[in-house]
Each structure stands twice: as C-alpha cells, then as structure tokens.
C-alpha cells in the first residue's frame, strides 16, 4: 500500500502570552510535537513554528497520514517441545496458541541455527495520524516550560493564559481535538483591532499568508523581528542617528506585537545632562523604547516605539508616548540629583544592612575581604595596591543609591559616574564598572590594573566563600553564577597575560574568611573546579582534550603558564618524533609505577652503567638538565620539548638494547633512577604519555 501524506496545521489561540517567554514557549512546543511524531514513527518533511502574543502555531509539511503496518511476531516453544511422542500438541503449545487467540494449526514454523520454533505472525494495521494527534498535542502542551500554570473560571485544564480557539487541520480536514475546554476548528482570529473577525483557513500552507493579508498578523516570529529591526534602524537614520538596539528588548517587543509599526518621538533635551545609561535604562525598562545615538555616540533627544497598530492618526500616538516618558525621565533626573548629594565613600556604612549570604555576612563584610585581596593581587601585578583597595571599598556603594535601586542593571556604571564626580582617582572610578566584567560570554575584560584586581578579588571571594560553606553549584542550580565567575577569572588572567598563581590567590581568599568556612581542603576543591572550567575554555579555543590532560597531569597553578604549556604540547605533537617519544614516556611511566620508583631524589651511579646505550642516555640526561635551565626560566616550553625531541633515538636505543629489570638489584635500581630522571625532563612541561595517536 502506497503511503499518503498531508500538511498539518496546529494553532493554539490565547490571551496575550508573556512576551519574554514567547520564543521559548514556541520552541518548546515545536520540540514536543516533533518528538511526539517521531515517537509515533510518523515521517514528515519540514516543521515550522509561528508565534505571536496571541498564538502558538506549527505548520508541518508532508506528514504521513497513517502509521506503517507492522508484522507482529511472537516466538513459541521449540518444535521438539511442542509435540509429544504421539504427535499431539503439548500443554505448552496449547497455552501459547490460546495466548495468541488462534488454533495450533494457525501457527507457523521458523527454522534457526539453533533449531525449529513455532511462531505466531499477525499483521497489525497502522493507526490513523488523526487519531494520534490529540494525545501528541496534549503531551507537548503538558511539557511546555511554564513555571506556574493557572486555571480560569470554570474552564477545564491549566495553562499559562486562557485559551480561546484551536485550529487543527490535516490537509483540508479538521481533526477533532478538545484541549483546555476548546474544540478544534478551521477558524482563527486576526489582529485584535485591525481584524477581530474569524478567518477561515483553507489549508495549512495558506495559514501564514492568510493571516498577514486578511488578518493584519505577521505570524512568523523571525520575520516580525526583522521587520521591527529594519523599521527602527530606518527611523533612527531619518533622525540623523543610530538606534540603540538591545537584543533582549528586541525579542521582548517582538513578543508584544502582531502588526509592528515604528514611530519616533522626542523628549526634552535637558535630560541629556543625565548619564546616557540612565536614560536608556528608563526608556527600555519602563516604556520598551529604543534610544537613538548621534554618529559621535552622544544620545539624541529622540526615542522609537513599536506600536501594535497602524494608527490613522500617528501624531496622537506619538504625543501620548511623549507624555508618558516625561515623568519617567523626571524620576531618573530626581534620582541623579539626590544621589549626588552624598559621596560614595559615605555610603559604606549602609552596606552593613545588606546581607550577601547568611553564613558569609553582609556586603560590607564582603567589601572588606575583597579590599584586602584586591590590594594583594595589585601588588603581585606590580601596580598600586592602595588604588585597588580603595576601589574595592567603594565597589558596592552604588547599590544603596536611588538610581541603582530603580535600575539594578546600572550597578557599577553609576558607581563610576558618582566616583568621578567625587574626584576619585580615574583608575578607581573605572574599576567600579570593570569589577563586573566579563558580564557574559565574549564580554570585554577589565583593562585598568585596579579594575582587574577588584574583578578577580570579587569573583574569588564569592567562589571560595560558597565552596567553603558547602554550597558549590549542583546540576543546573548556580544561584551565585559561580561558573560564570570562574570562567571570568580564567579569562582575565589568561587573556590579560597575567603571571598570577591561582592557587595562591585562592588560599589568600580562604584565609580572609576568619572562622567562617566549614569545609576541609577548600583550596583543593576550588582549584579542581577551576581546572574543570579551564578544560571547557581550552576545548572551546580549539585545543584537544589529550593536550589538556597532558598538562593537567603536572598541575600548573598559573593559568597563563598552563596555556603556554598547552601551546608547546600542540606544537610538539606535530614533530615526527612525537609519537615515539609519547610511547616511550608511557612505557617509562608504567615501569616506574610497577616498581614504585617514581620518587624524586633517586640518583644515578655512573659506575654502574655498563651498556653503551644506557651510558649514552645518562650523558644526554645530564646535558639536557643543564641546557634546559635557561629555557625553563624563560618559560620557553616549546624550546624545551623541541630540545627533548632530539633524544628520541637515544631513548629508543635504550629500550632496544638495555634490560631494565636486571637480576642485579643495584643495576636494576640504577636503571630505574635513570628512567626517572629522563621522565622528569619531560614532566617539567607536561606528561606527553597522555597524548593519543
């Protein structure tokens, strides 16, 4: 039987969905339906998701309309056990036939390598796709990431918003489905204002075009997003500037409208005296407006709003938005003026009222610890410890300002502005903003010495503190963003080329928690956590896992040094001698481990060297120990490994011509000592025996 295929449309019409969650809901709905169809073994061509504030929809092309027929096969008893001596069916055979609902004569015989068996075969007709869809749709809705499902009135079921209509079309036919108290139909609804009347959907493939042409609804999320982006940029250009397009705001606005229309408005230029970030936060956070910058980067007294309607009188809409934004900007101006009356330094006492973490004390306590650690880090970097300490003490003071209280995303940024107005050193002011960098993957790193010191100290204090009280990240739970903080520490040290010993910094951070930490071996735990984060970092940079493992084996505690060793190992493995030397090192390691001779301090007695090959290796080891000293001092690990590559033939000759496990104990131990010293030369960089072919 040839298989038939039809297009499928599923649309769930609701009250306005949460705009920030719309895209996530749409993607999850698609994944759920896709998984359901695959589990039912129903093939399809392409599945396309659509989403607006009032609907979640999917159009699936060339969906199989019926499951394939299956041949169900059950194996019964072996022929030898199926009949007695007289050829009559045994009880086992009779029972098997009854369980299959057939007579013994209806069973078939199957020959195998292990003998003959009686089997039951039955053709099972595949289910109609239409009969499977209600359960597939229901399961997908049940799995949507909705933190809190709600019930409305006497409507059955719970969902994120009330459901008003349901469209399920398979080809030209409506599939009967009842979900959340609504029966499926072929009628959708257009734009709430432009076309509130029902729209009859002809076929699944006409769904999106019909809604756009008849209903004034751009149902394609990505197309709507691009339309908004284009309109905003075009309007900004007409105003002589560039739009400030925050990706999160763009997503949110896309989730707020079905028929986007961009309009530009103005505000009083006097507000431009405020920090640009404050104005942008006010426009974005409260009104969902896009700000506009001049070509030189200065903010312009304009904003762009996205309406959900094509108004016949846009001037009225613009005037209304201009009236609304005035009190918002006035509030920001009030916060700015109020905050400037009190210097940041005088706000430190207020930090005693803010709890950082119950067991780790207040934000004031944390500031004191961070200040001590930042001063030490700055000193290790060769910069001014006093500036780093001052910056750390002021770092959290803007948390108690009116502006940051209203716009938490401005913490650090407002601290920088207020510190500049207070006459603080330029590096100190900049550090108040840089302490939070990197804020996200790929973000800029702190650049000033004080900013680097405070950022590292802040992150290390948090990581060590939480590990020290037994609250490391677990699974997906990471409320203090320790993963991001750890990666930030590594990026700052490595990408700023800082020769800082991370183990020392972790120990110093732990020592600042006087009688607070309860966990044993905190430094070891935290360093292991950093090594785990470093592994992900280097793999993302294109390094190979075995290169990382080879360096980890010698546990360098300076991240920059770790990276330099990895680079050297990557270059070393390109050499023709690499494979042989890696194998030789693995053999040496195995021999030493078996004989418990992998300790430092074993010396080679030249008087016990008898074979030419072991004498040659001993001479090369002595020569290498001297030759490599300046290379190690310069951290020229590539040079070290390149030099050691020249020992391949000597090492190979040793294993070919020398019996390490001599019957003479003194000779045996002497040869083990020689191998130990040979291996130590390589371990000065990495354990190259970890390298795979």
Automatic annotation (TrEMBL):
<keyword id="KW-0030">Aminoacyl-tRNA synthetase</keyword>
<keyword id="KW-0648">Protein biosynthesis</keyword>
<feature type="domain" description="DALR anticodon binding">
    <location>
        <begin position="587"/>
        <end position="691"/>
    </location>
</feature>
<dbReference type="Pfam" id="PF02092">
    <property type="entry name" value="tRNA_synt_2f"/>
</dbReference>
<comment type="subunit">
    <text>Tetramer of two alpha and two beta subunits.</text>
</comment>
<protein>
    <recommendedName>
        <fullName>Glycine--tRNA ligase beta subunit</fullName>
        <ecNumber>6.1.1.14</ecNumber>
    </recommendedName>
</protein>
<dbReference type="InterPro" id="IPR006194">
    <property type="entry name" value="Gly-tRNA-synth_heterodimer"/>
</dbReference>
<dbReference type="GO" id="GO:0016874">
    <property type="term" value="F:ligase activity"/>
</dbReference>
<dbReference type="InterPro" id="IPR008909">
    <property type="entry name" value="DALR_anticod-bd"/>
</dbReference>
<dbReference type="InterPro" id="IPR015944">
    <property type="entry name" value="Gly-tRNA-synth_bsu"/>
</dbReference>
<keyword id="KW-0963">Cytoplasm</keyword>
<dbReference type="InterPro" id="IPR009080">
    <property type="entry name" value="tRNAsynth_Ia_anticodon-bd"/>
</dbReference>
<keyword id="KW-0436">Ligase</keyword>
<comment type="similarity">
    <text>Belongs to the class-II aminoacyl-tRNA synthetase family.</text>
</comment>
<keyword id="KW-0547">Nucleotide-binding</keyword>
<keyword id="KW-0067">ATP-binding</keyword>
<dbReference type="Pfam" id="PF05746">
    <property type="entry name" value="DALR_1"/>
</dbReference>
């Amino acid at each position: 039987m040839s298989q038939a295929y039809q297009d499928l449309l599923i649309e769930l019409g609701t009250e306005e969905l949460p705009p920030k969650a719309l895209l996530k809901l749409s993607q999850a709905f698609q994944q759920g339906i896709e998984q359901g169809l695959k589990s039912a073994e129903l093939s399809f061509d392409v599945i396309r998701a659509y989403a607006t504030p009032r609907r979640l929809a999917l159009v699936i092309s060339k969906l199989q309309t019926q499951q394939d027929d299956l041949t169900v096969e059950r194996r019964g008893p072996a022929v030898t056990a199926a009949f007695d001596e007289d050829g009559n069916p045994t009880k086992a055979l009779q029972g098997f036939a009854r369980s299959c609902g057939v007579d013994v004569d209806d069973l078939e015989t199957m020959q195998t390598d292990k003998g003959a068996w009686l089997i039951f075969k039955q053709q099972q007709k595949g289910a109609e796709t239409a009969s499977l869809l209600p359960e597939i749709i229901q399961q997908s809705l049940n799995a949507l990431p909705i933190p809190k499902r709600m019930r409305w009135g006497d409507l059955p079921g719970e969902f994120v918003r009330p459901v008003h209509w349901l469209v399920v079309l398979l080809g030209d036919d409506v599939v009967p489905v009842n979900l959340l108290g609504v029966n499926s139909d072929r009628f959708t609804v257009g734009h709430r204002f432009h076309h509130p009347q029902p729209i009859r959907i002809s076929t699944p493939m006409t769904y999106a075009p019909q809604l756009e042409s008849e209903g004034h609804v751009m149902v394609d999320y990505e197309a709507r997003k691009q339309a908004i982006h284009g309109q905003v940029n075009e309007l900004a250009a007409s105003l002589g500037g560039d739009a400030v397009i925050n990706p999160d705001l763009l997503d949110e606005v896309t989730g707020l409208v079905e028929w986007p229309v961009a309009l530009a408005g103005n505000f009083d230029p006097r507000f431009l005296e405020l920090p640009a970030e404050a104005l942008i936060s006010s426009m974005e956070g409260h009104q969902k407006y896009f700000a506009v910058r001049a070509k030189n980067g200065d903010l312009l007294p304009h904003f762009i709003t996205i309406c959900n309607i094509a108004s016949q009188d846009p001037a009225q809409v613009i005037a209304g938005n201009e009236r609304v934004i005035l009190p918002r900007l006035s509030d920001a101006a009030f916060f700015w003026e109020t905050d400037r009356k009190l210097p940041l330094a005088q706000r430190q006492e207020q930090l005693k009222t803010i709890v950082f973490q119950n067991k780790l004390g207040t934000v004031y306590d944390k500031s004191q610890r961070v200040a001590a650690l930042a001063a030490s880090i700055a000193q290790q970097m060769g910069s001014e410890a006093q500036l780093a300490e001052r910056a750390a003490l002021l770092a959290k003071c803007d948390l108690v300002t009116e502006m940051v209280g209203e716009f938490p995303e401005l913490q650090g940024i407002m601290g920088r502005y207020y510190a500049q107005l207070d006459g603080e050193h330029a590096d100190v002011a900049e550090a108040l903003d840089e302490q939070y960098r990197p804020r996200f993957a790929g973000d800029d790193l702190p650049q000033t010495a004080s900013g680097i010191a405070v950022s590292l100290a802040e992150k290390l204090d948090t990581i060590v503190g939480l590990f020290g009280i037994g609250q490391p990240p677990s699974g997906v739970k990471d409320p203090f963003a320790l993963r991001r903080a750890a990666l930030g520490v590594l990026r700052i040290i490595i990408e700023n080329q800082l020769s800082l010993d991370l183990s020392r910094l972790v120990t110093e951070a732990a020592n600042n928690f006087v009688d607070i930490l309860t966990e044993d071996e905190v430094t070891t735990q935290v360093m292991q956590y950093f090594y785990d984060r470093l592994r992900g970092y280097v793999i993302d940079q294109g390094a190979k896992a075995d290169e990382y493992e080879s360096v980890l084996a010698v546990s360098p505690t300076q991240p920059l040094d770790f990276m330099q060793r990895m680079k050297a190992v990557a270059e070393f493995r390109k050499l023709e001698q690499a494979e042989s030397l890696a194998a030789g090192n693995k053999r040496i390691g195995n021999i030493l481990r078996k004989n418990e001779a992998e300790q430092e301090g074993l010396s080679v007695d030249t008087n016990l060297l008898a074979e030419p090959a072991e004498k040659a290796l001993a001479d090369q080891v002595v020569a290498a120990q001297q030759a490599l000293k300046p290379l190690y001092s310069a951290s020229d690990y590539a040079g070290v490994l390149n030099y050691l590559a020249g020992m391949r033939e000597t090492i190979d000759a040793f294993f070919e011509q020398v019996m390490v496990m001599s019957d003479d104990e003194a000779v045996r131990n002497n040869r083990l000592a020689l191998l130990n010293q040979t291996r130590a030369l390589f371990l000065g960089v990495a354990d190259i025996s970890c390298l795979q072919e």
